[in-house]
Amino acid sequence: MSLDPTRLAPMANAIRALSMDAVQAAKSGHPGMPMGMADVAAVLWSKYLKFDPTAPDWADRDRFVLSAGHGSMLLYSLLHLSGYDRPTMDDIANFRQLGSPCAGHPENFLLDGVESTTGPLGQGLAMAVGMAIAERHLNAEFGDDLVDHRTWVVAGDGCLMEGINHEAIGIAGHLKLGRMIVLWDDNAITIDGSTDLSTSEDIRARYDATGWHTVTCDGHDPEDIQRAIDEALADERPSLVACRTVIGKGAPNKEGSSAVHGAPLGPEEVAAAREELGWNAPAFEVPEDVLSDWRATGERGRAVHAEWGTRLEASERKAEFVRRMAGDLPAGDKAQQAFAEWLGQDHTVATRKASEMALEVLVPLLPEMVGGSADLTGSNNTKTKAMQALTADDYSGRYLYYGIREFGMAAAMNGMALHGGVIPYGGTFLIFSDYCRNAVRLSALQQVRAIYVFTHDSIGLGEDGPTHQPVEQVMSLRLIPNLNVFRPADVIETAECWQLALAQKGTPSVLALSRQNLPQLRHDGDMLSAKGAYRLRAASGERKVVLIATGSEVEVACATAEALEADGIGTDVVSMPCMELFAEQDESYRNDLLPADALKVSIEAGSTLGWERYTGTDGLQIGLDRFGASAPAGDLFAKFGFTAEAIVPQIKARLGR
Amino acid sequence: MSLDPTRLAPMANAIRALSMDAVQAAKSGHPGMPMGMADVAAVLWSKYLKFDPTAPDWADRDRFVLSAGHGSMLLYSLLHLSGYDRPTMDDIANFRQLGSPCAGHPENFLLDGVESTTGPLGQGLAMAVGMAIAERHLNAEFGDDLVDHRTWVVAGDGCLMEGINHEAIGIAGHLKLGRMIVLWDDNAITIDGSTDLSTSEDIRARYDATGWHTVTCDGHDPEDIQRAIDEALADERPSLVACRTVIGKGAPNKEGSSAVHGAPLGPEEVAAAREELGWNAPAFEVPEDVLSDWRATGERGRAVHAEWGTRLEASERKAEFVRRMAGDLPAGDKAQQAFAEWLGQDHTVATRKASEMALEVLVPLLPEMVGGSADLTGSNNTKTKAMQALTADDYSGRYLYYGIREFGMAAAMNGMALHGGVIPYGGTFLIFSDYCRNAVRLSALQQVRAIYVFTHDSIGLGEDGPTHQPVEQVMSLRLIPNLNVFRPADVIETAECWQLALAQKGTPSVLALSRQNLPQLRHDGDMLSAKGAYRLRAASGERKVVLIATGSEVEVACATAEALEADGIGTDVVSMPCMELFAEQDESYRNDLLPADALKVSIEAGSTLGWERYTGTDGLQIGLDRFGASAPAGDLFAKFGFTAEAIVPQIKARLGR
Questions:
Q1: How confident is the model at residue A5 (pLDDT cuts 50, 70, 90)?
Q2: pLDDT for B517-534, tens place per residue?
Q3: Which of B476, B587, B599 to mutate to test the interface with A (most CBs of A within 10 A)?
């Protein structure tokens, strides 16, 4: 459809009306942003966005990310008006109520057309960077015929103030992701009031300095918006379009103030806005002619989609493309064969090295794997020999040098996984999971297959000291719902955990890996890690003690068991590489492994709180509830009691021997 | 001392020699940065830095923060050479060994002169912003005579790439912290290789855009370094001095490459560097003339310190200044009296509101309290009516509008607390503790009194939905060593928890506070929260059940107890506002509260993992191990089973009734 400002105004007002009415009905929500950005959204939807509301999962659609997720009514309005099945008008009328897919913030798992869960500020924009990376990467592999779309972002002042913004635009600028366009809702208002309260930054100059193209427009003038977007499209760099807007535009007594950001307008102001906007329709009704113009915005994409479908049918790469976008792994399991051979060998390696060995097998077999590290490539062992860098000059590469940007990396990984066609993995030190923790949480909430390679997973990293030694990180990651935290004990478990992580389409994984060498403890058994925990070593006589350990402490548990057995105390060793998978096993398996009549002892070089679930309060929890220290790893394990010599007497005392 | 380049070169080489020798002896560490920045450090120490090695805690000393903490040998060298008691040469020779205060990364609690623990990149610079804020604030209160110093930072490329850098310099630029100078080790090398691998940013332009003064110098030319620093000192804005350096300068075959960043040079290269530098002294020896020049750098400050001491003695504000810098609270406890009156009243308020009420009492009594919020002032209830903003125009204000910068805020709070004279508190939503988690960890590791006001502490926040609803946050914060996590149940406990947080000089605190209203449950008792947990309500007959709850779920526990008692099941309610303080109580208190012969049930709207410590595995853990949903709070509490109706049957079933 052509850009007719006289028809765009009522279209934008439809967004304003739905937004203020839904927020009013819910008695909570954020009317300011949808009302402020309604004109920009109407232009984008009418003229630029490539989408087909009847096929929300069309692989070559443009991605639209509402980074300022509190303005969710903007997105719900757009989806409804342009003809998606959901949300229905009922859904919108039930905004923020139990059961409505119109949640307070957009949730990708509740509605088609919501490309990502947003609300934690800055992360939507950072995920969009990942989407734009995935687009260029798949374009390099599958060509313009199949992959040729843009990534659009609506971001607010908050998104631009958050630290992750710096990391995200640094990546995008460096990789010259010119098909990414950020529409900044430049309204100079935050929750606390004017942006003058807290910032003096020249944002355009900062983006310019970071390799972006920038342009400003009047966010309430359709022709000026169009001019700015056209300029952005013409530039090879990623673009920031500063849309000068009035927050809550249309609410005559409140617009332009922070009062309209996050609270209902109130019935009087809603009525006044109707008058101001010339909007006579009742709440949750849209006049037929306006709705018809909106529905037309979806028509354009339908034809483009059909043409694309024809090209896909004709493509030699169709099957592979469809497989990858569906997130299915290739048929046949050649990796398993390679790993099975390791059982007969003997590898004393750090699990980070074991992970690299696993990647050398997996990466060639799974072309969808795209790896990277936040500037710790050699330490995280994330790069296989054959991997080439993904760069601005060559998007076909499969390895990303993310720079010292843990949060930006994790969010980009989420974006890649959400885009589809790619399985992202990325590395940093486990301690710096703290830096990207909320992105890991969003992996879990969004149900995406992002795989975190977190190495240097305990005091075992040694000399770098307490700032770098995880203590509470493993247990605290276990607390995040829908996240599998793997802490493998040796080369065999590491390979198994990689396979388990790759097999989970809707669950992200953390691999917590050692810096230090660990002996190979397993020489038989097939995928024993799949049950989360298993008996690695059985008591020779009557079982008195069960040692439960993870990662590098399984070796310690084996030494402890040997010493106890030498004293005639029958001792099992249970390796528990994944607490979450163990919790899913049936009761008989769990009770067989951790029987009521044995003394149960957990050994993990981290927080003990939580281990009582498996040891009982009458068991022992050997762990570390203080910060570490700087010294060689062996000295630290001795100092903090992670040796058979230190553990055996505690167990004997508990047994009264 | 005057700047004599011919004498500065050996001084810088002393740093290089100590650094490469210590790393070589430890067989681990980072020689590249100390060798690269040795010339800059020698100029700074000789000509600019105000310090007195005999009085490391002199309140008006310049603060020097090594944000690139991996280059710790730079700092240890400087402290030793300039005449601090520690580190001794033995300490340095034992770099990174158990018991040496020369840890892998600098630890403020191990050595005087180490102003902050650094290593987690970006945070040193961000803490320095807090120090510079504290300096200007105290200057506004105590005048130039007592407070008039600078904050210097050495930062690397990593510090500048991290997202927190954006937040920190945004705060500093906005507040025009002109007495802060960042010496950027601009060596164009990161661990993975050249910075070209991951960034294309024009860093000076970005700093310019953020309100900073910037200047470049040759980091190996003392006169050019001096020119740049002099320019920085003359400018009113905070300054970034880009020091063009060669990483590992002096190691002839390895300098300028990432190989020299984080590994020993090796004996041959150490020998080659000795030759290159003309450094003939054996390892861990410094020629007398060089040492003498270094010791002279400490002399300058001694005289300045003495003059300052005279001014302090003459000051009317001496007692108050000394008290505040010592971190002692004012004598007398007037707050207690005000809070005692609340027992006789009845306040049904959200605990975030109760916190505001407590602040209205405390803030006037404690002039050292400096509050703020990351753009959620009205939601966190962190600002009292009388508080004025701390701004570039008026540093005497006691309230900071941090902007949407959670991580930057938390790090600045650490810096303020480390500076001394100020007790910082700051607010955001509890969910965004994820954004600043590593700074909270550094509060704990550094043993500072930073107080985090984390509101909207559960699904009880309602409509904003799962992105904003904490589930795992409370328990995961409890895992951080030396951090008190308070979750008060009502207005009385909130006041108590504030007092407990303020009383802990060496332990930071989190206050997890509700968005929703909660009834006042306590009408008697004095500071019962001090024991971490206490019996709020005793069973009327024989005790069968003990309910343990925190925060908003204590109300639910009381209703549950009432229903159970009505059925003749004797039930205690234990309120546990602080698990950490409870763990410190003696066994008899703990056993009395949580006796072995009762069914123990925890009720907390968050992760259950961990509660087995207090309920036993045969108890019940009522919690939430999934993400929340978007709906009004009441609907969510019902949906997720946090009602007496949902809990009573589970308890009866467990009791076999």
A1: confident
A2: 999 999 999 999 999 999
A3: B476
pLDDT (average), residues B419-425: 98
To the nearest whole percent, how much of chain A has pLDDT over 90?
A: 97
The dihedrals phi and psi of B153, each to the nearest 5 degrees, come to -135, 135
Please judge whether B404 and A158 are an interchain contact, meaning their C-beta atoms are less than 8 angstroms apart.
Answer: yes
CA distance A599 to chain B (A): 14
Kindly indicate the confidence band of residue B2, based on its pLDDT and cuts at 50, 70 and 90. low
Smallest Cβ–Cβ distance between B630 and the set A104, A431, A482 belongs to A104
Task: Return the CATH fold of A5-307.
Answer: Rossmann fold (3.40.50)
Q: Is there a common fold for B5-307 and B333-519?
A: yes
Sort out which chain B residues have CB atoms less than 8 A from A482's CB and list them. 626-627
Helix H, strand E, coil C: the string for B376-398 is CHHHHCCCCCCCCECCCCCCCCC
Q: Which residues of A touch B377 (CB under 8 A)?
A: 191-192
Handedness of CA B375, B376, B381, B385 (dihedral sign): positive
**Amino acid identity of A122?**
G
- The B residues from 598 to 657 touching A (CB cutoff 8 Å) are 607, 609-610, 612-613, 616-617, 625-627, 629-632, 635-636, 639
Q: What are phi and psi of B366, to 5 degrees?
A: -120, 90
Q: ∠ at Cα B202 (A67, A156), nearest 5°?
A: 15
Report the chain A residue with the minimal C-alpha distance to residue B476. Answer: A476
Q: Which of B141, B269, B406, B496 is catalytic?
A: B406
Contacts A–B by Cβ distance under 8 A: 336
Domain range summary for chain A, segments of one domain joined by +: 5-307, 333-519, 531-655
Asked if residues B315 and B322 have their Cβ atoms less than 8 Å apart, the reply is: no
Q: Where are the alpha helices (DSSP H) in A447-586?
A: 473-478, 491-503, 553-566, 579-583
| pLDDT at site A333 | 77
CA distance B82 to chain A (A): 24
State the average pLDDT over residues A452-476: 98
Active site residue B406: yes
Q: Tell me the pLDDT tens digit for each residue of B79-108.
A: 999 999 999 999 999 999 999 999 999 999
Which residues of B contribute to the annotated binding site for thiamine diphosphate?
70, 119-121, 158, 187, 261, 432
pLDDT at A2: 60
CB-count burial class (<10 Å; 0-12, 13-18, 19+) for B542: exposed
- The answer to whether residue B220 scores a pLDDT higher than 60 is yes
The two tokens of residue A64 are 């639209």
CATH of B531-655, one of 3.40.50.460, 3.20.20.370, 3.40.50.12780, 3.40.50.920: 3.40.50.920
Would the CB atoms of A198 and B625 count as touching at under 8 Å? no
Binding-face residues of A in 127-156 toward B, CB within 8 A: none
- SS3 of residue A480 by DSSP: coil
Query: What is the residue-averaged pLDDT of chain A?
Result: 97
Q: What does the mean pLDDT of chain B come to?
A: 97
Please give the pLDDT value at position B333.
77
Within the 6-65 window of chain A, which residues sit less than 8 Å (CB to CB) from chain B? 26, 28-29
CATH code of the domain occupying A333-519: 3.40.50.970
Mean pLDDT of A404-418: 98
> Are B467 and A105 a contacting pair at CB < 8 A?
yes
Closest residue to A630, CB basis, from B104, B408, B441: B104
pLDDT confidence of residue B282: 98
Asked if A302 contacts A424 with a C-beta cutoff of 8 angstroms, the reply is: no
Q: With a cut of 80, say whether residue B390 has pLDDT above it.
A: yes
Tokens matching residue A353: 């090295």
- Subunit contact B198:A639, Cβ cutoff 8 A: no
Per the CB < 8 A criterion, the answer to whether A191 and B379 are in contact is yes
